[in-house]
Specification:
Layout (H helix, E strand, L loop, with lengths): L1 E4 L5 E4 L1 H7 L11 H5 L3 E6 L10 E5 L3 E3 L2 E4 L1 E5 L2 H13 L2 E3 H10 L3 H9 L4 H13 L2 E3 L3 H9 L4 H11 L3
Parallel strand pairs: 3-6
Antiparallel strand pairs: 1-2, 1-3, 4-7, 5-6, 8-9
Helix pairs in contact: 4-8
Length: about 170
């Protein structure tokens, strides 16, 4: 991680690729010494650990680099996402949630809901839906969080979206 101090004295994050791009007529060495970097007002920076945050509703943003006792330091802030950004992140997260049928059955068994699935399938009024969901349950190798049959089943087994998200996360670690 590097910092470049602009002509106005304001530091900003920088990288060696940008240094080469900004100076196309300069032949740079393979490895940059602090002295070579300083000729271009570029300095090595240390990054403080990024804070823990909720990836769905928040993001981590680097603060402006600070010179602390001659060393450049980059710290981070947590910033709330807009409702639209959070909804987009949640949709992407759910689109990527997939577990094996083994994982799904183990997780459902552990929370006492495995036996409810067969009963719930029997209660589906539409024969075509009942057949499709039954086939998915019996023969699919994986279960996708965004599968239409999952959305049909969560209400029947008494779960909400957040509980189902948690169940998928738990199942993915089994």
């Amino acid at each position: 991680m590097y910092v470049k101090v602009g002509n106005d004295g304001v530091p900003h994050l920088y990288n060696l690729t940008q240094l080469r791009k900004d100076n196309p007529n300069v032949s740079f060495p393979r490895s940059f010494s602090d002295e070579v970097l300083a000729q271009f007002n570029v300095y090595r920076a240390s990054s403080l650990p990024k804070p823990t945050y909720n990836e769905v509703t928040e993001k981590v943003v680097a603060r402006e680099p600070e010179n602390v006792n001659g060393a450049w330091i980059v710290a981070y802030d947590i910033v709330a996402l807009t409702p639209e950004e959070a909804a987009q992140n949640l949709a992407e997260k759910r689109n990527n949630m997939s577990v094996t049928m083994r994982q799904a059955r183990l997780a459902l068994s552990e929370i006492g809901k495995l036996s409810l699935i067969d009963e719930a399938i029997k209660l589906i009024p539409e024969p075509a839906d009942k057949a499709q969901i039954s086939i998915e349950w019996e023969y699919a190798q994986t279960v996708d969080r965004t599968s239409p049959w999952i959305n049909t089943m969560i209400n029947v087994i008494g779960m909400n979206d957040e509980e189902l998200d948690d169940l998928f996360e738990y199942a993915s670690n089994l």
